[in-house]
TrEMBL record:
Domain of life: Bacteria
PANTHER family: PROTOPORPHYRINOGEN OXIDASE (PTHR42923:SF3)
Protein family membership: Belongs to the protoporphyrinogen/coproporphyrinogen oxidase family. Coproporphyrinogen III oxidase subfamily.
Name this polypeptide is given: Coproporphyrinogen III oxidase
SUPFAM superfamilies: FAD-linked reductases, C-terminal domain, FAD/NAD(P)-binding domain
GO cellular component, one term: cytoplasm
Residue ranges of domain Amine oxidase in the record: 26-477
Cofactor(s) required, per the database record: FAD
Places the protein is found: Cytoplasm
Any one GO MF annotation of this record: oxygen-dependent protoporphyrinogen oxidase activity
Catalysed conversion reaction: coproporphyrinogen III + 3 O2 = coproporphyrin III + 3 H2O2
GO BP field: heme biosynthetic process
Presence of keyword Cell cycle: no
């Protein structure tokens, strides 16, 4: 379905079902768009209303123009090997606007003893595809390198019990690889403590490699053919709209607004069944009833709204922990930076005792993000392992970032701009046992017909995962709302 005009659908005989979506982030918008698609596909009318307590759609997510700089406040791209993001762009008619990362700089840096060092070529998040670049790298000592080489002789785990990422890497590769390479790389994705992060819920393919080949290295070698030689993350898989991530958001909103109502600055404070419908209670307005409701919110907010309707479900949702972080975006003259910035970014091991987690070089990843001779940096602060760093004021955090950038990259002079974006309790922590917890939540949801959950708290934290979550929630509510009359 391309460039669908939902407003031009034929007149329907049956009365329209009323469906509400609480939360106007990417998950909620994906749910809304898919509900409109389902309405057109099945010739069933839907009266759709989207509520959000914020004053802007998309929350902190989106692109912003600062002079001649084009910056990202949130995610700067998404992966293509999870198809839901690309498929949505195709249905919105913007797939031809997607651009890939700059091949010239497809490498990652890791801070080691205060200096940026390139990640060994072929290293993929938890393990190497080839040993020679690892043996040449200064990131590990000789004993550390020998321990990595021994991975091919480590016995596979006998049980299927969930395991922390730290336990898995320590068991197969040793402590040094965990501390010096894996922790900062994975921490840059999940802002998590690897000692608590569930491997099943985050990077299950490494468990599958161990189970199938008896060795992660042997498994990665088998899969290596045709892969990119880039170090770190598989950057060739990342794409973004040419005009920035806001282009995806704007395209969604444009389609949705043709047939739905969006009510911002509207705080929902409760959800409860009311006969065969769902009643939504508002902080500053009378309650309203709907045939279906999608809660596209952080798990703890959904838990609060469902406390009276389903206490057990509310309790399970409350078990999902969250970390807070901040991104400081800044624009600089390239001549003011000692490091050549010949990569996509720098991640920083916790053992380096710095006050920042990572620095992304946005204008090295994608074109037209900074004027000629300048660069956009995005510095990440906080997360599960440094929660205290986001408790400072905006000015204090920006001062910290200036000091750290000067120390690790040699950034001098006065930035053209600095902007801080806070993500308070925004990143769910997929701790050991997460998948079992999600299964329990899904089972408890069976008792709450007409309500669905969406967001990054359940099956993935990336943009495609959020889109998938929203679309699956839309299908559940659609199925509940249009069940045949008994």
């Amino acid at each position: 379905m391309n460039d669908s005009d939902f407003s031009s659908s034929p007149t329907f005989d049956p009365p329209a079902k009323e469906i509400a979506i609480v939360g106007a982030g990417i998950s909620g918008l994906a749910a809304a768009y898919h509900l409109l698609e389902l309405s057109q596909e099945h010739s069933q009318p839907v009266k759709l209303t989207i509520f959000d307590a914020a004053k802007r759609i998309g929350g902190a997510f989106g692109t912003e123009q600062i002079g001649d700089y084009r910056i990202e406040r949130g995610a700067d791209s998404f992966v293509t090997n999870k198809p839901w993001g690309v498929r949505l762009c195709e249905r919105l008619g913007i797939q031809d606007q997607l651009i890939s990362t700059n091949p010239e700089f497809r490498r990652a840096l890791i801070l080691h003893r205060g200096k940026p060092v390139e990640t060994p070529a072929g290293f993929q998040l938890l393990g190497p595809t080839e040993l020679w670049p690892m043996l040449k790298s200064p990131l590990l000592s000789l004993p550390g390198k020998l321990r990595v080489a021994q991975e091919m002789f480590v016995r596979r785990k006998a049980s299927n019990e969930d395991e922390s990422l730290a336990s898995f890497v320590r068991r197969r590769f040793g402590q040094e690889l965990l501390d010096n390479i894996v922790q900062p790389m994975v921490g840059g994705i999940y802002t998590s403590d690897p000692e608590r992060l569930s491997l099943q819920a985050t990077l299950p393919r490494f468990l599958e490699l161990e189970a199938r080949y008896g060795s992660v290295i042997r498994g990665l070698r088998k899969l290596k053919q045709g892969s990119s030689p880039a170090s770190g993350a598989r950057y060739g898989l990342f794409v973004t709209p040419a005009q920035g991530m806001q282009q995806l958001l704007n395209s969604l909103v444009e389609k949705i607004e043709e047939s739905a109502t969006i009510e911002l600055k509207t705080k929902v404070q409760g959800i409860r069944p009311d006969a065969d419908r769902i009643q939504i209670e508002f902080a500053e307005a009378p309650p309203r009833c709907f045939d279906g409701v999608v809660l596209a919110l952080p798990a703890y907010l959904s838990a609060s709204l469902l406390e009276s309707a389903n206490p057990d479900l509310s309790s399970s949702l409350s078990e999902i922990d969250y970390a807070s972080s901040a991104i400081v975006v800044s624009g600089h003259q390239l001549d003011d930076i000692e490091h050549p910035l010949d990569a996509f970014g720098l991640v920083i091991p916790h053992r380096e005792r710095r006050r920042i987690l990572a620095v992304s070089f946005l204008s090295r990843k994608f074109p037209d993000r900074a004027p000629v001779g300048k660069v956009v940096l995005r510095t990440f602060v906080g997360g599960a392992m440094q929660p205290g760093e986001v408790e400072f004021s905006d000015d204090q955090i920006m001062d910290t970032v200036r000091i750290e950038l000067r120390s690790v990259l040699g950034v001098q002079g006065t930035p053209d701009f600095m902007k801080i974006v806070r993500y308070d309790r925004a990143m769910p922590q997929y701790e050991v046992g997460h998948l079992q917890r999600v299964e329990r939540i899904r089972s408890q949801m069976d008792d709450l017909q007409g309500v669905a959950l969406a967001g990054n708290a359940f099956v993935g934290v990336g943009i495609p995962d959020c889109i998938r979550s929203g679309e699956e929630a839309a299908e559940k509510v659609w199925g509940d709302s249009f069940q045949p009359e008994q």
